[in-house]
Design goal:
Length: 980
C-alpha cells in the first residue's frame, strides 16, 4: 500500500457563504434525525454530520448526490509515531495485514488453519530473538515450510474479490506519521455490503500469508532506497526532529526492524489502537445519512472502547543555528530549506501560515512565482507545508540552473523570507488570495474524495473538534493583517532552519533488505468462503447506467468559422472555455517551447509580472498545453469575470513581444532540465518503453537537438504564438450562460479567421513489429530492477473493446488479478506488478501489450520467468472472472460523465471513429462473455508471442550474459533514448 507523504487539507466552501465578520456564521449546533443525535457547523457547505456512537466510534457523513458513488475512509489515529521503538514500521505492516481476512473470510477451514498460524507466530517470535545467522536461517526455513502448509487453507485476496464484485474502486490504504486510513470508493447501492465486510474486517483480523506480504514490504523499502526524494525527505525530518518520532521513526521502518518482525507485537498494536474511541468512519457521496448511521451503529456496536495512550513527547529543543546535511544519489541535485513551526492545533499560527504560504507561492502572483520562477533565477522553486498535530514542517525547495550552486539557490530562496520580514509586499494580495481560495475550494466541493479526505484529516488532528475553524478558514484568511504576517515571519523565520543538499554521487550508506528464500504458496483462486457468498446475497437496488447521447447532451453552434461545443453548468458560477487547435508538436516541434515561453512575455500594455497579477486578482486562470496533434488554450474562473479573463488572454496572445533575455534563460533552464531527466530512472524507463514500441525514432526522443534549441530565436517563437489563432479550431464552453448568450459573448471577444491556415504536415511514428524476443537494457545505479514487456498488436477495432476490458480486469488490472496474485501474493517477487492490453487513442493505430515487474535485482530472473509463464498460459478462475464481470458492470452503471467531460468524451470518440457512447456496447456484452473468450483472446494476442524486454537495472547486480537467454541484448545509451 502507498505511504502518504502529505494530506492536503480541503476546507470546501461555497462563495456565497463567505463574507466579512463571518465567525458568528460558523457555530457548532446539535440536531437529531433518524433516532440519532449529531453535531454540525452552521453554513458548512459540506453539511457534514459528526456522530459519536455509544462505544466512542466517530462517524462523519457528508451527502453529495452528484454521482451514485460514495468515497469511504476508515481511519485510526495511529501511525509511525505510535510504533514501538524496537519495532518501527509496525503500523505499516499492520495496514498490509488488514487485507488478509478474518476467521470467516480469507480461509477455507479456520479450524485447520489456526494451529499453523499459531505456530508461525511463535516461530517469528523465536526468529526475532535469535541472533546467530545460521540459526536464523534455520528458523526462517521452518517459517517458510509451515507457511506453505498454512497457505493451503488460505484464500488470497478474498477481501479484494469482495470489493471488486460490489463495484468498489481505488481499494487501498495508507500509513503516515499520525494515521492509518483504509480507502474505498463504492457504488451507492453497495452500502450494506460494504459495511458488512468492513465490520467483519476489523472484528478480529487474522495475520495470514505473512511472510509473502513481508516480502512485499521489503520490496517497498528497497524501492525507497532507490528514491532520492524519499531519502531527502527522511533526512530532513530526522534533522528537524532529533527526538520526536516525526524524525526518529520512518513510516516504512528501519532495515534492522524490517528484518526482525514480530507478529505478537503487531497484534498488541492492533489491540491498543484499533479501538472505536480512536477510529472514525467517514463517508461522502450519495446516501441517506439516517439509514447509514443506523447501519453503522448496528454493524460496529461489537467494538469496545479502551483507553488509548496518546503520543505526547517532550518539546524539541530550539534550533539555534542552521544545520546542513547532504544526501547522495544518482538523481538530479536539489536543495531543501525547512523550518519547524507550531502544529495544526495552533489554529492562529496555522491561519497566518496559510496566508504566508500563498504570499510566497500561489502559482501566479506569489513572491516565488514573480521574483524567482517568472524571472528564471533558478531551475525551479517551490513552497510546501506539512501540518501535523505537534509541529508543522515549512519547506522551501529549489533546483539549480546551469552555472549555479545549490548554495546560490538556498540564498535566493531565503531572500524571499527577508522580503516578508520587511513587509515589502502589497497587502492587497491577501484579498486576492482569499478570492482564489474560494474558487479552488468551490471546484473541490464536487469531489467526494476531497470531502472525505478533509473530514478525515480533521479527525486525525483534532478528533474533528476544530471543524468550526476549518469551515471558517478561508473567510478568516481575509482578516489576517500585514503586521501579523511580518511579525510571524520575524518570529519564526530566523536562523533556526535545516538545509538538505541533494547532490549527485554514490550513496555509500544504502543497506539493502536482503530477502530470505521463499517457496511460492497456494493462492486458491477458485476457493470461496461462505462469507463471500453471504455478502453477495445482500440485496442491492440496481443502478441504471446512463449513456451519453452526443446529439442531445452537447449543443452546437458557431463562433465565426469555428465550431462551438456547449454544455451548460447548472450547479454553480464556474466557467471553462477552451480553444482547441488542430495542430500539435508533431506538426511543429517548437510549439511546446513557444507555449512555455509565453509565461515570460510582456505586451505593449502589461509586463509578464503584471499579467500574472491581473489574472490572480480576478481569480481566473489560463493555460496553453500542447500534445502530439492538438494545442489547447484553457481559460477558467468565475463567470462574473469571464469577459475580463478572455479579453486579457486575447490581448496577451495577440500582443506578446519577443524577450531575448527571457529566451536565453529559458534555454539554459531547459538544458539543465533535460540533463536532469537523464538522471531520473522513471524518465529513462518511459523512454526505453517508447524505444521498444516505436524503435529508434519514437515520440519520446522526438525533440530538438541541443544545436536546434540554441538556434531558436525569440521572434520565431512569438510568431508561432501570434499565428496560433489562424489554425482550424474548435471552441468549447462549459458554464452557466445560455448557449446564445455564450455564443454572442465569445464571438465578441474571440476573433476567428474567415479561412484557416493549413497546419504543417505531421511527422509520423510507426509502431514496430516484434518478430523475435529482444532485450533493451539501460544501466542505472539502483538497488532494484525495473522490467517492462512490450509488444505491438493489430489495429484498433471497436468490437474488441468489451473483451479487452474483461481481459484487463481479469488478467492484470488490480490486486485481485491473476498477475498480482501470482507474482506478488504467491511468489512474493515484486511490490508492484501489472499487465494490460492498451488501446490506442486514434482510429487506424495499433494496440500494445504492456507488462511490468519491479523486483529486487537478484530476483529479477525469477520475476521474468513468473511473468512469462502467465503471458504464455492464463490460469482459469471462474470465481475471479465472475468478480471481474461484476466489477465492470458496477463501474459502468455508476459512472457519470458530466460537465465539460461530456465534450471531451465526444472528441475522444471522434478520434476513434465512433459516433456513440461505446460503454453501452461494452455493457451489453458483459453477460455473454466467459472464460473461453478470455482464453481465446489471450492465446491469440499474447501466448507464445515474441516480446521486447525493456530493463533498467544496475549492471553490477544483474548479468547481461544471463539476459541473453530472453533474446538478443542491446544496451542503449541515454542519448539514444532521449534524443539529445
Amino acid at each position: 500500500m502507498r505511504i502518504l507523504k502529505q494530506v492536503v487539507l480541503l476546507m470546501v466552501l461555497a462563495c456565497s457563504m463567505l463574507s466579512a465578520g463571518a465567525q458568528s456564521k460558523y457555530e457548532w449546533k446539535e440536531a437529531n434525525a433518524g433516532g440519532y443525535s449529531y453535531r454540525y457547523v452552521t453554513n458548512d457547505p459540506m453539511k457534514a454530520r459528526f456522530y459519536t456512537l455509544k462505544n466512542g466510534l466517530t462517524v462523519i457523513l457528508s451527502v453529495n448526490k452528484k454521482d451514485p458513488r460514495i468515497q469511504t475512509l476508515i481511519g485510526t489515529r495511529a501511525g509511525s509515531n505510535n510504533d514501538p521503538k524496537d519495532h518501527t514500521g509496525l503500523a505499516h505492516y499492520l495496514e498490509h495485514l488488514l487485507f488478509k481476512g478474518t476467521q470467516v473470510y480469507g480461509t477455507m477451514d479456520w479450524a485447520k488453519e489456526k494451529p499453523y498460524l499459531d505456530q508461525i507466530e511463535n516461530l517469528y517470535d523465536k526468529y526475532n530473538k535469535t541472533t546467530d545467522p545460521a540459526k536464523r536461517k534455520a528458523v526462517y526455513h521452518e517459517i517458510d515450510s509451515v507457511s506453505g502448509i498454512a497457505a493451503k487453507y488460505a484464500i488470497a485476496n478474498e477481501y479484494d474479490k469482495m470489493m471488486t464484485a460490489m463495484g468498489a474502486q481505488g481499494t487501498n490504504a495508507h500509513t503516515w506519521t499520525e494515521e492509518t486510513v483504509y480507502e474505498e470508493d463504492i457504488p451507492s447501492n453497495a452500502i450494506d455490503k460494504y459495511l458488512t465486510v468492513q465490520a467483519e474486517r476489523f472484528r478480529d483480523p487474522v495475520f495470514r500469508l505473512f511472510h509473502t506480504e513481508l516480502e512485499a514490504v521489503y520490496e517497498e523499502k528497497n524501492r525507497g532506497l532507490d528514491n532520492d526524494g524519499r531519502k531527502v525527505y527522511e533526512t530532513m525530518l530526522a534533522t528537524l526532529f532529533p527526538t520526536h518520532n516525526y524524525g526518529q521513526q520512518s513510516t516504512i521502518g528501519t532495515v534492522e526492524h524490517l528484518k526482525n518482525p514480530n507478529l505478537k507485537a503487531i497484534r498488541q498494536f492492533y489491540n491498543e489502537y484499533y479501538v472505536p474511541n480512536n477510529m472514525a468512519i467517514v463517508m461522502a457521496g450519495d446516501f441517506d445519512p439516517d439509514y447509514v448511521i443506523k447501519t453503522i451503529d448496528q454493524k460496529f456496536s461489537y467494538m469496545k472502547a479502551k483507553p488509548v495512550k496518546e503520543y505526547n513527547p517532550a518539546p524539541e529543543k530550539p534550533i539555534t543555528a542552521p544545520i546542513e546535511k547532504t544526501v547522495y544519489g544518482p538523481d538530479a541535485e536539489s536543495v531543501e530549506v525547512a523550518f519547524r513551526l507550531p502544529g495544526a492545533l495552533d489554529t492562529k499560527s496555522s491561519l497566518v501560515l496559510g496566508v504566508i504560504s500563498s504570499i510566497l507561492q500561489n502559482g501566479k502572483a506569489g513572491l516565488f512565482d514573480l521574483n524567482i520562477n517568472k524571472q528564471q533565477k533558478v531551475l525551479n522553486a517551490g513552497v510546501q507545508d506539512i501540518a501535523w498535530k505537534d509541529y508543522t514542517v515549512f519547506d522551501l525547495s529549489g533546483k539549480a540552473k546551469p552555472g549555479q550552486s545549490l548554495e546560490d539557490v538556498k540564498a535566493i530562496l531565503l531572500s524571499q523570507l527577508d522580503i516578508l520580514k520587511k513587509g515589502d509586499f502589497d497587502e492587497s494580495l491577501v484579498k486576492a488570495i482569499v478570492n482564489n481560495a474560494k474558487l479552488s475550494e468551490l471546484q473541490g466541493l464536487e469531489s467526494n474524495n476531497n470531502r472525505a479526505s478533509s473530514l478525515m484529516d480533521g479527525f486525525i488532528k483534532s478528533r474533528g473538534k476544530n471543524w468550526q475553524y476549518d469551515v471558517s478558514y478561508i473567510n478568516d484568511m481575509g482578516t489576517v493583517t500585514k503586521k501579523q504576517i511580518v511579525d510571524y515571519a520575524n518570529k519564526y523565520f530566523g536562523n533556526d532552519y535545516v538545509v538538505i543538499y541533494k547532490r549527485k554521487g554514490e550513496d555509500k550508506n544504502i543497506e539493502k533488505v536482503d530477502k530470505p528464500a521463499i517457496t511460492p504458496v497456494e493462492v486458491n483462486r477458485d476457493a470461496q468462503s461462505p462469507f463471500i457468498q453471504q455478502v453477495a446475497n445482500i440485496p442491492a437496488t440496481p443502478v441504471a447506467p446512463q449513456w451519453l447521447d452526443y446529439n442531445k447532451d452537447i449543443q452546437k453552434g458557431k463562433v465565426g468559422n469555428a465550431d462551438l461545443l456547449y454544455v451548460q453548468n447548472k450547479d454553480n458560477a464556474l466557467f471553462r472555455l477552451y480553444y482547441r487547435f488542430d495542430v500539435g508538436t508533431w506538426n511543429n516541434i517548437k510549439l511546446s517551447l513557444a507555449a512555455s515561453y509565453l509565461q515570460f512575455l510582456s505586451t505593449d500594455k502589461y509586463t509578464a509580472e503584471q499579467i500574472s497579477k491581473e489574472f490572480y486578482d480576478i481569480a481566473c486562470n489560463f493555460n496553453v498545453s500542447t500534445s502530439n496533434d492538438v494545442t489547447t488554450i484553457s481559460i477558467s474562473g468565475l463567470q462574473e469575470n469571464f469577459d475580463k479573463a478572455v479579453a486579457l488572454f486575447e490581448h496577451i496572445i495577440s500582443n506578446c513581444q519577443p524577450n531575448e533575455a527571457a529566451l536565453t534563460a529559458l534555454k539554459s533552464r531547459m538544458s539543465k532540465a533535460r540533463a536532469d531527466s537523464k538522471l531520473n530512472k522513471g524518465a529513462i524507463l518511459k523512454g526505453l518503453n517508447n524505444y521498444g514500441i516505436y524503435g529508434n525514432k519514437n515520440p519520446f526522443n522526438y525533440t530538438m537537438s541541443t544545436a536546434d534549441l540554441e538556434a531558436v530565436t525569440a521572434k520565431e517563437l512569438v510568431d508561432i504564438l501570434h499565428n496560433l489563432m489562424a489554425y482550424k479550431q474548435t471552441v468549447i464552453y462549459w458554464g452557466p450562460q445560455a448557449l446564445t448568450a455564450a455564443q454572442t459573448d465569445i464571438a465578441k471577444l474571440h476573433k476567428v479567421p474567415a479561412t484557416f491556415t493549413e497546419a504543417p504536415a505531421a511527422v509520423k511514428f510507426t509502431k514496430v513489429d516484434q518478430p523475435a524476443n529482444q532485450v533493451l537494457f539501460v544501466n542505472y545505479d539502483m538497488v532494484q530492477s525495473e522490467v517492462n514487456w512490450v509488444r505491438n498488436d493489430g489495429e484498433y477495432n471497436p468490437s474488441n473493446t468489451a473483451i479487452i476490458s474483461l481481459f484487463n480486469n481479469y488478467f492484470g488490472g488490480g490486486m485481485g488479478s491473476i498477475v498480482f496474485q501470482t507474482i506478488r501474493e504467491s511468489k512474493a517477487l515484486a511490490y508492484s506488478t501489472y499487465a494490460f492490453y492498451s488501446s490506442p487513442q486514434k482510429q487506424g493505430e495499433r494496440y500494445t501489450i504492456l507488462a511490468y515487474v519491479g523486483s529486487q535485482a537478484d530476483k529479477m530472473n525469477e520475476a521474468i520467468n513468473g511473468m512469462n509463464e502467465l503471458l504464455n498460459d492464463i490460469p482459469q478462475s471462474d470465481k475471479l472472472l465472475m468478480a471481474a464481470k461484476q466489477s465492470m458492470k458496477q463501474d459502468i452503471e455508476t459512472e457519470r460523465i458530466t460537465n465539460d467531460a461530456i465534450i471531451f468524451s465526444y472528441l475522444a470518440a471522434q478520434k476513434l471513429g465512433l459516433s456513440t457512447d461505446i460503454r453501452k456496447q461494452v455493457y451489453e456484452s458483459i453477460d455473454g462473455m466467459n472464460f473461453s473468450d478470455v482464453k481465446k483472446f489471450h492465446d491469440e494476442h499474447l501466448a507464445h508471442k515474441p516480446f521486447t524486454y525493456c530493463i533498467v537495472a544496475n549492471d553490477k547486480k544483474v548479468s547481461l550474459d544471463e539476459l541473453k537467454k530472453y533474446g538478443e541484448v542491446k544496451t542503449l545509451t541515454l542519448e539514444q533514448i532521449f534524443g539529445y
